Amino acid sequence: EVHLLESGGNLVQPGGSLRLSCAVSGFTFSSYGMSWVRQAPGKGLEWVSAISGSGGSTYYADSVKGRFTISRDNSKNTLYLQMNSLRVEDTAVYYCAKPGVPDGDYWWFVEWGPGTLVTVSS
Amino acid sequence: IVLTQSPATLSLSPGERATLSCRASQSVTRYLVWYQQRPGQAPRLLIYDASNRATGIPARFSGSGSGTDFTLTISSLEPEDFAVYYCQHRSSWPLTFGGGTKVEIK
After folding, report:
1. Are the CB atoms for A35 and A47 separated by under 8 Å?
2. Which of A8, A18, B68, B69 is the most buried (most CB within 10 A)?
3. Of the candidates A44, A100, A106, which has its C-beta nearest B97's C-beta?
């Protein structure tokens, strides 16, 4: 059974940094691209970033480009999101999400973690 | 690519048919995905590539469309279907989601 579990969410001041992790199990992690999706309180879904199975290709939403960095450690079955220069508008629940098909352009998300809350406030 | 969902809210009774729309600002061919999100839960994949039902999704959910106009239809609403629905494209980077349609009980 596939499991995704995010961690690292916290309260941080504007301008601060935070690193989120997503520990996975139940599938061959290195074969799948992975993604982060966020949801501000009471708002809709916003795609944030994605990474290929090898880690060689990364993609970002314009709203986070230059501030966030996605990475992965396939030996630890863990996905990361390094968030720098955080803004109030980055406050959201951050989900890691897994496509249903191994590496390729099959970016629809079958499995999701429960999410971790990031609050940016002074 | 901007995805515009309409209506923002749909008020219907159990057993009624729901028709949700997602319009793309440019063609996404058939690379359009639908999710359902219930309060306090992560999204659930319903439909991928416009019309393919995901594993375990009941047949009352169907998707159609191509290019810029897409529709999610729920043929007869069950109590558990009252939720928020999002579309997402996978046509190009960056991926984007629509703003959502809330299906509420009338």
Report:
1. yes
2. A18
3. A44
Question: Can you tell me the mean pLDDT for A86-91?
Answer: 98
CB-side exposure of B13: number of CA atoms within 13 Å? 0
Closest CA to B70 of B16, B17, B33: B33
Question: Which chain B residues are within 8 Å of A35, Cβ to Cβ?
Answer: 95
Q: Give the N- to C-terminal CA distance of chain B in Å, as an integer.
A: 33
At residue A114, the 3 state secondary structure works out as coil
Sorted by sequence, the CB contacts under 8 Å of residue A66 that are 6+ apart come out as none
- Residue A104 confidence (pLDDT): 78
Give strand ranges (E) for chain B.
Answer: 3-6, 9-12, 18-24, 32-37, 44-48, 52-53, 61-66, 69-74, 84-89, 96-97, 101-105
Q: What is the pLDDT of residue A66?
A: 98
The distance of A122 to chain B (nearest Cα, Å) reads: 26
Q: How sure is the predictor about A35, in pLDDT bands with cuts at 50, 70 and 90?
A: very high
Pairing of strands A45-51, B69-74: unpaired
d(CA B96, CA B39): 21
Q: Chain B contacts of A114, Cβ < 8 Å?
A: 42
The answer to whether residues A81 and A61 touch, using CB atoms and an 8 Å cutoff, is: no
Mean pLDDT, chain A, rounded, equals: 97
